[in-house]
Amino acid sequence: MCPSLFLAGTCAACRLVVQKRTVAGPFNQGAERTHMSSEQEIQPVIGVIGGSGLYDIDGLENKEWRRVETPWGEPSDELLFGTFEGVKCVFLPRHGRGHPIPPSELNFRANIDALKRAGVTDILSLSAVGSLKEELPPGHFVLVDQFIDRSFARIKTFFGTGCVAHVSMADPVSHRILDVVEREGRKLGISLIRGGTYLVMEGPQFSTRAESHLYRSWGCSVVGMTNMPEAKLAREAEMNYATVAMVTDFDCWHPDHDSVTVEAVVKVMKGNAENARRLVKAIIPVLGQKRPVDPSAERALDFALITAPEKRDPALMAKLDAVAGRILNAG
Ligand SMILES: CSC[C@H]1O[C@H](OP(=O)(O)O)[C@H](O)[C@@H]1O
Ligand SMILES: Nc1ncnc2[nH]cnc12
């Protein structure tokens, strides 16, 4: 047990592990982030998580697929590193190229840790969803601002016995990112709605009609299988997160529409993907501008850790090097 891990420079053995892992990604800013103050400017690195139908990203220069190791296991795929108009970007196909991984088997921790390790500051998630509202037909993009997490077979935290943390999820998405997505999306003429609740179901089967009606009665806008625990883990890793939920179907509640099938989702996603690509190209140059630290996410751990230093588990602390290095290594 090392009681002094939070005090940088006091435990040579533990720090060795931390340092070895922190430098893994080519865009990593871990060292600067460790000591950043909220007045400090940072150079964002944009991460894009592509959902169903989005397994690559257009227009990147200096493209390179690269494997990133994490202490949580394998991410869904290699990460695609590149630049777009000079902005550093990292793309991850959520289900892997060719879509081999179902929602419940996604290694969400490895995915988020890998992006963090790669230096990503801002994550834009692109997801196919079913609509739970008449006014959100297929082809619409919903800029989600809330989630209801009904997933139940997933590991939902980086923390645990030996280092307990409780971050706030009251405002789970970055409104700074959504402002940019909304403005650029409207300029492109994409049908989008700002705000909405994404119901996360476990899957992989689609909902029963009773479930679909239940989610509607809760006021949810869209239903999908992937954005939790992704958003929770991004918050724990102090990364900004926002989702563009792209409607592909009316799930199974609508009396005038067939119940959702993969065939229908894929067909609509082909059109949605084109708009998603236009949108991503428009927002990256804006999101990639230098900006002040965004405390809502980038300071999420400031008041979240509760485990006394002498009760902390060195092995877990070492695994948290990328996710919580800013605070664990603070001198
Ligand atoms: C292929 S339809 C169901 C599948 O699509 C969505 O995934 P993603 O959010 O990665 O686009 C949905 O959540 C399901 O995983
Ligand atoms: N109706 C639906 N339910 C869950 N996930 C989806 N992804 C796309 N459509 C969906």
Automatic annotation (TrEMBL):
The keyword Protease does not apply. InterPro entries: MTAP, Nucleoside_phosphorylase_d, Nucleoside_phosphorylase_sf, Purine_phosphorylase-2_CS. It catalyses: S-methyl-5'-thioadenosine + phosphate = 5-(methylsulfanyl)-alpha-D-ribose 1-phosphate + adenine. Phosphate binds at residues 52, 94-95, 127-128, 226. Pfam families: PNP_UDP_1. Pathway: Amino-acid biosynthesis; L-methionine biosynthesis via salvage pathway; S-methyl-5-thio-alpha-D-ribose 1-phosphate from S-methyl-5'-thioadenosine (phosphorylase route): step 1/1. GO terms for cellular component: cytosol. One of its GO terms (molecular function) is S-methyl-5-thioadenosine phosphorylase activity. GO terms for biological process: L-methionine salvage from methylthioadenosine; purine ribonucleoside salvage. Substrate binds at residues 225, 249-251. Residues 46-284 form the Nucleoside phosphorylase domain. The record marks 207, 262 as: Important for substrate specificity. Keywords: Glycosyltransferase, Purine salvage, Transferase. Its EC number is 2.4.2.28. Catalyzes the reversible phosphorylation of S-methyl-5'-thioadenosine (MTA) to adenine and 5-methylthioribose-1-phosphate. Involved in the breakdown of MTA, a major by-product of polyamine biosynthesis. Responsible for the first step in the methionine salvage pathway after MTA has been generated from S-adenosylmethionine. Has broad substrate specificity with 6-aminopurine nucleosides as preferred substrates. PANTHER family: S-METHYL-5'-THIOADENOSINE PHOSPHORYLASE. Homohexamer. Dimer of a homotrimer. Belongs to the PNP/MTAP phosphorylase family. MTAP subfamily. This is S-methyl-5'-thioadenosine phosphorylase. It comes from Gluconobacter morbifer G707.
